[in-house]
Specification:
The chain is of the alpha+beta class. The protein is built from two helices and six strands, in the order ββααββββ.
Length: 140
């Protein structure tokens, strides 16, 4: 039996950085220790028991995905995706595997003081381009 979640939009404004990553001569991305992380969670998981209480489990898995996303001290979206999958597999004996797909939705802080705005920073949403991080984690 499989269950899942789609189109669960989340955003966090703390505990997210992207720095100290591998670089080559063509790298233009800069290290940043203070980023906004936003994504749209798509997850599906495989139950290992046919007689599990699916409604309660679904809500508990959803809650753990949200809590892990919010509390994880993330070094990248990939890092958070893995932590979310690991949390589900480690905390639910009757979930044998989980597949996650998380697009990296970009939100940037923009300094508007040069335009004489009284509020220093505003958030600019950029819908494209974005990456989609996907993985399936299984119990061994």
């Amino acid at each position: 039996m499989r269950a899942g979640i789609a189109n669960l939009v989340v955003l966090k404004t703390t505990k997210y950085a992207f720095e100290a990553f591998k670089k080559d001569p063509y790298t233009t991305l800069k290290d940043d220790s203070d980023l906004i992380l936003s994504t749209e969670i798509r997850a599906n998981w495989l139950y290992t028991e046919e007689d599990a209480e699916f409604g309660g489990l679904w809500h508990a898995v959803r809650q753990m995905l949200l809590e892990t996303f919010a509390e994880h001290d993330s070094q990248s979206l990939q890092h958070t995706l893995y932590a979310m999958g690991e949390a589900i597999l480690n905390n639910f004996a009757n979930v044998g595997e989980i597949s996650l797909s998380l697009p990296n939705k970009h939100f940037e802080l923009v300094d508007l003081t040069p335009l004489a705005w009284t509020t220093r920073d505003r958030v600019l949403a950029a819908d494209e381009p974005h990456t989609r991080i996907e993985a399936t984690l299984k119990k061994s």
